[in-house]
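Follow-up to my post from last week.
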Amino acid sequence: MPFDTILVANRGEIALRVIRTCKEMGIRTVAVHSTADKDGAHVRAADAAVQIGPGAPRKSYLSAPAVIEAALSTGAQAVHPGYGFLSEDPDFAEICADNGLVFIGPRPEVLSRLGDKAVARELMTDAGLPVLPGSPGTVDSAAEAADLAARIGFPLIIKAAAGGGGRGMTVVRQPSELLPAYRQTRATAQAVFGDNRVYLERFCDSARHIEVQVLADGHGAVLHLGERDCSVQRRHQKLIEESPGPGLHKELTAAMARAAVRGARAVGYTGAGTFEFLVHDEGFSFMEMNCRIQVEHPVTEAVFGVDLVREQIQVAAGEELRFTQDDLQPRGAAVECRVNAEDPARDFAPSPGTLEQFVPPGGPFVRVDTHGYAGWRVPSHYDSLLAKVITWAPDRDRALDRMDRALAEFRISGPGVHTTIPLLRDVLADPAFRDGKHDTSFLDTRR
Amino acid sequence: MIRQNGHNGRRGHNGNGNGSRYYGERPMSEVTKESLRTAPTDDPLAGLDYDTSALALTDICRSIADVVRVGAGHPRRVRVTLGAASVEVEWDEQQQTAATAREPATLDRIEDTVQGHHECAPLVGTYYVAPSPGAPPFVRPGDRVEVGQQLGIIEAMKLMNPLEATRAGRVVEVLVADGTPVEYGQPLVLVDPEEPAGGAGED
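User reply:
Got it. Predicted complex:
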């Protein structure tokens, strides 16, 4: 047993998902929660729970001292950060180490370098990965922005160096929009990430978002677990993800996988991570790396039969991966739909409320990762993800049919509660999506 | 206290809607949940968890006080049963008038003693009752405290954070032992607050 107690520094479905794997490994779990989450499913599932602060994330799930104190007082040896919150915070990873706790993720210095998107772009360029034309580093003046934009061409995208989660990005289509967008993005980046540095990159209108899952131990093994297609997005937020990516040539996906492995090796990456690429007319380009477990990791687990969280824990404990690249053979197709508590009639604003009825679907090859249950009040402090439904089948068509069946079964209701299920089912029925001909602009241009 | 195994050990504190008044910082939602769970039965007390006998007794005493106040004349004997606990009160013929007159103050004192005012942990850490090991504690039961007076220390990330009184009053009980890990919002010191402006004073 690598650790006897792990603290899960997260909430919602991902905290529950990590706790479940820990239980299977015979590891005791400690949940942390805010006052708003004291009835949370993860609190009930864990062996112990510590209330770490009020509902506002900044004072609870983002409070490194509160999490560390909770870990120390409960005898945890390791901290699993899940995704979001403290998961990619190099300072938190370092504070863990300073307090004798194992941070389940890459080393702090790796997090620090890859967390700066502009630096990551340079590192991967040096490692030989293709990137889109863009600024060599961050752009620190309006004059520099104008000069670079003329060379990159339009449309281009301004991105926050500290950005992530689809925020802090502005697409610029004409030279006249550049300076207002530059100033606006810097202001947003400052407000949201506390860091106003931005960089420029060529923007592709009809591109696909394809990412590659990697897994690396500290003993020289760097493996990939194929790709995921995350092109169904609404305002840069993923809604449907699948593996393998439909209609992609084997040579292309193999080249992307090799690039991801090369990139991970170049930066000394350890644990589970994801390389995000754009696939466009001229090939593929590196976008950024996510140094954590991802929301959509279950589709990869479904086609490869690997529990990625278990691997994360074992790698963090210093163990070697127990399989080789040849052992990793994908089977069939898997798709994930994100069921969010959002109101389509109010421009997809989060719709918190009490879940009076909550009956997840079941049946063969259906996995539901959710923290929801009947009677639970969805707090308004956090993101709107309510459940992830994952289906597997021998081929994509049957996986999609199965998904539609599962979503039709899903019963969620309560006063003021709306979900993305109708929208998801619309997309599943859309011929462009069915044919795998969709790109990242698919949802935003569809109606 | 750091709870072992999530929800276990929490239910006892929330006997019913009244119970939550004594634990003001215990949110109402949990109480509602308990009430919902017991709703289908006809017995309003079914499923109520009165393992905290002090709470049951307090509820009974309050019920007795209510009966005494509502009744036209003063009763000679009142008996209230709640779960396994039961209290019977009998008044002397001669003392009846005096008892009636004193009753509101008695009720207030019961409420103040049990409800009181909890000084809660503003952060996660380790609670210390004294400025250093072996030193006398900041406060003891019976001590009078002023607003801003230090009651204890919460150590978090090697920083000593003072816990200060937010209301003036008399310390009833220090609820956690020295060196105990505490979670956010956990009640640490029970204070019997002073009446804001004299109120229904006993003197």
